[in-house]
Amino acid sequence: MAARVRLKMRRGTGVSSFAVLLSVCAVLVPASGMFEHRHCDHQHPRAHEIIHGVHIEPVHEVKKRSISQPVRILLSYDESVFRLDDEKLDLINNTILPEAVHFWERALMVRETKNTIRLNRKCESSQVFVKDHHTHCIDTCRPVTMCGEVRVPEDHLDVCRTCNATGHNCGIAEGSKAGPGIDGADFVFYVSAMQTERCHKGLTVAYAAHCQQEAALDRPIAGHANLCPGSISTKPQELETLLSTVKHEILHALGFSVSLYAFYRDENGEPRTPRRSDTGKPPLNEKLQTHQWSENTIKTVVRPRWQVHGGYVERTMQMIVTPRVRAEVQAHFNCPELEGAELEDQGEDGTALTHWEKRVFENEAMTGTHTQNPVYSRITLALMEDTGWYSANYSMAQELGWGKNLGCNFAMKSCKEWISTKSSPLSGKSIHPFCNKVKQDPLQTECTDDRSSVALCNLVKHSQPLPKKYQNFDSIPHVRAGEEQYYGGSVSLADYCPYIQEFTWRARNIVVRGSHCLYEENNPHPDKNFALEKYGPHSRCFDHTNDMWEERTCKQARQWQHWGSGCYLYKCEVGRLHIIVNNYTYTCYHAGQEIIIRIMQNGWLHKGALICPPCRDICQAEFKARNEWCKPGDERPLSTTYHKDYLHCSSADNFNLSISMFIILILPLVVR
Ligand SMILES: *[C@@H]1O[C@H](CO)[C@@H](O)[C@H](O)[C@H]1NC(C)=O
Ligand SMILES: *[C@@H]1O[C@H](CO)[C@@H](O)[C@H](O)[C@H]1NC(C)=O
Ligand SMILES: *[C@@H]1O[C@H](CO)[C@@H](O)[C@H](O)[C@H]1NC(C)=O
Ligand SMILES: *[C@@H]1O[C@H](CO)[C@@H](O)[C@H](O)[C@H]1NC(C)=O
Ligand SMILES: CC(=O)N[C@H]1CO[C@H](CO)[C@@H](O)[C@@H]1O
């Protein structure tokens, strides 16, 4: 899966004919280049690569067990993991993997595995015989059994069983011994850290898949994950992303995979997809090289009138329609007609069909690309329940804000139709959660809905007209009529529907900092902190007014070409929100209140303004926990004074000031 989105940018240097009087500001400017995305690349294992029918316990015993054992995942490291440098090894072994595994161990339960797991050996041919519940290879077993890129240790393997080519003389191959096997676990996860070809492709961070399924209910019992050493970052602000990526990959191995849909079972443990009488397995899909699921698991849904720029097209989509998933998406969007949860239709075979549709589920962690704030929602847990192998602990589900209660118009229609309907003169409503502000010079940032990050509308101009079905605008503010078809969100998997997104500042292709408020690493350099921002665990994003921020000394003034929002400390006290800028506290009395900031810092007077959000947006939860609440909005009491600094300049300064009092225009955005 993916890493954080980036904006390409570079250092611009503002110099002009008046430069003698002005200090040169170097500012990091995101260019109007593309947001970058890395798609999750879950190349589903092909049918012949998977070993089915690993016998652990008889089916009648397994079936009657309740699904109440928190899933126990055993991690088994390949030696490549120990070749990682110390810092990365420590991060992977002591933080990322234990946390990711622990998350699923609390979130999912299985039927307890009471017997020892001994994995099957791989056969030379894809044809096998099953005798007395055991799989037999023809003539010989392969000397080495792989699970993905990892060699399964001999200790975990069963004996080699063989028959001859006509299915006679079946038995244990001479000299073959069973290993001690795996006790007290329900799933074994082989972890490697090899810089493979797939790592280079699309800058993949990690990938995973299952490799063996047990015989009774086809539950996956072994899988592998490869973490790409070159893409592992130990930077604190990238940990959350890495952790979410590893959790995402584990889930592909546990059940969310094209290779497993056909094996899903209902609540009675019966196959959702009918089995062939000869093989006992679902039919094969030659094209996907995997087993074909039935319409009661994934259904093809046709939307004949899908509105796009200048008309309609027909769209066909694949939806998970199993009962719990269907109930969860209907409840989430508040749309009782919704057929199911739409699957991604774009990306290569590692992305399509094996993730939730990005347009519909934006920051759900099981979408095909990471953009921001990934959450594992009830919908994903419901899917895991509908596999028939797990029950879910819904108290582990994270809140998915995207699309919540937006109804069938949101869940069943194009974003074009949503945007057009909402913004029509008759309606005049906000087109939220989509946006239509083209990223341009000067760069005006916004805040994400949850105010955890400074963000931008990811609407950009593409070099080619977008395919008709992704043309989402009839008109766009400040875009010449006729050019709309070049404009779309930067996230292709979201069907180019534009939305507000966090980003990273980059200089010469190196990430300088992110825009997420909660990470101290994102603090701007003190010399460049024109809007006196403060990033850290107690910060949130607040909007600036429409005026740009300005810095002054007696001799110089400079204005910055990017503004709009910033991260600031806050506190919730005595029923009000207080914003803290450079140790000065500003109390918000009502939503929309403009707070003028004038603060001397490092010899510069910083001037700007912040807008108070509604108290409940930021303080509600915190107050509730303390049995307090937000006081109703009120005009600020006449007695309140906010801190204000002034410049004290001599007359000589003033003379010079009159010359230098102009705006440095920082270089226009660099287009690439
Ligand atoms: C990996 O983690 C395990 C369990 O926490 C610990 O016992 C082991 O020493 C760690 N190995 C390394 C190389 O850090
Ligand atoms: C369910 O999740 C909660 C935390 O959200 C946790 O405290 C609890 O132990 C979990 N239950 C099980 C059975 O793991
Ligand atoms: C398999 O074994 C049976 C019984 O020993 C024998 O009749 C048959 O010819 C063997 N088949 C092959 C292909 O060796
Ligand atoms: C804020 O106050 C603290 C403690 O009084 C001080 O250490 C810090 O430098 C101050 N910060 C600013 C930006 O003035
Ligand atoms: C503070 C400062 O730089 N003052 C200068 C303003 O400009 C006059 C001449 O134009 C200089 O003499 C001052 O030194």
TrEMBL record:
Zn(2+) binds at residues 248, 252, 355. GO terms for cellular component: cytoplasm; membrane. Its EC number is 3.4.24.-. Residues 1-33 form the signal peptide. Binds 1 zinc ion per subunit. The active site is at residue 249. It holds the Pfam family Peptidase_M8. Its main location: cytoplasm. It is found in: Cytoplasm. One of its GO terms (molecular function) is metalloendopeptidase activity. Its cofactor is Zn(2+). Keywords: Cell cycle, Cell division, Cytoplasm, Hydrolase, Metal-binding, Metalloprotease, Mitosis, Protease, Signal, Zinc. One of its GO terms (biological process) is cell adhesion. Belongs to the peptidase M8 family. This is Leishmanolysin-like peptidase.
